[in-house]
Sequence to fold (265 residues):
Amino acid sequence: MNRWIHGAYLQMLDHIRIVLVNTTHPGNIGAVARAMKNMGLSDLCLVEPKLFPHEAATARASGATDILDRARVVPDLAAALEDCQLVVGTSARGRHIPWPVIDPHELGAIAAPLAGAAASTRVAILFGREDRGLTNDELHACHHHVHIPSVDSFSSLNLGAAVQVICYELRMAALDAQRADQAKPQWGTPWDIELADHAELERLFEHLERTLVGIDFLDPDNPRQLMPRLRRLLLRALPDKVEVNVLRGILTAVDKQVAGAKDKA
Ligand code: SAH
Fold:
């Protein structure tokens, strides 16, 4: 599950299909298109919409009419889902038969890596009718159900708002994966030495501070932001164990020179 096409984190959003089932109000379809485009999704599939295309959809889409133009209208759910490896149904309330229920954040963690795993993978997220949601049969076609944890006494979001929340979490999951990847060394080849751990880095920082005091570069009575800045610099580099040892070796050599100079004086 935890594989991504190398570097293509945001493109994975193209592999996630928003499926609207029997939407009544064309304005909601426009709102969904806008929500999708804001978050970088593009694959919209409409199962038997009541009115589409429609000027109210175009108006509510604002600048997202390209999503509407490319939207696929299909006669039944099977046609919307046939090429999808993961199908997730959204629901404003609990159903009779318990099903694995996740929240939108958990959906991001599950769906994003899967959608990014290969060029051909597709994830579908189903949204129901404005008045009565998805039928039990439709929900039983799903691997997971997603519930946006709204208040029990007023749990149903507007369709466009529900799509917005879900698409936001999917985008955040893609951005998180991208950030995690960028934090790793980018050499196009596996790193040859283990990264230094927290304890080793802390020992390096302590040593650095001692040495900087020893050479009168750091005034312990007026340290300013020197150590936090040096920590940030070194942490940004993600040094490995050997690099940390080299730096410690340099500091030890400096310490010896300083001690020698002090002895002579
Ligand atoms: N009365 C309907 C609500 C439909 S709202 C019902 O009880 O199911 C229209 C669609 O918006 C829902 O089918 C679902 O896809 C989505 N939606 C609305 N509120 C939601 C929530 N709290 N969690 C997940 N999806 C929600």
